[in-house]
Write a structure and sequence with these properties.
Order of helices and strands: HHHH
Number of domains: 1
Radius of gyration: 11 Å
Number of helices: 4
Shape: globular
CATH topology: Non-ribosomal Peptide Synthetase Peptidyl Carrier Protein, Chain A
InterPro entries: ACP-like_sf, PP-bd_ACP
CATH class: Mainly Alpha
Protein name: Acyl carrier protein
CATH architecture: Orthogonal Bundle
CATH superfamily: ACP-like
Amino acid sequence: MSNLPPPGRAEVIDWLAGLGQRPPGAERLDSMELAWLVHQVEQRYGVELSDDQLAQMTTIDAAVAVLGEVLSAHA
């Protein structure tokens, strides 16, 4: 378990940039971006996300909200 704070919007966007160029203003996450984001969270925080949590992560803001809830609960 990590003592790092949950990622904010800018950090999530930075992680997604690791996959390559995103269109400016793109909000929705595709399946590849979601998989990459989950990998980043597992590596940095040592937590696994449930299928229900993954299903909620359809946009950048939704992902930030879910990650904030999950990681705060595991702190």
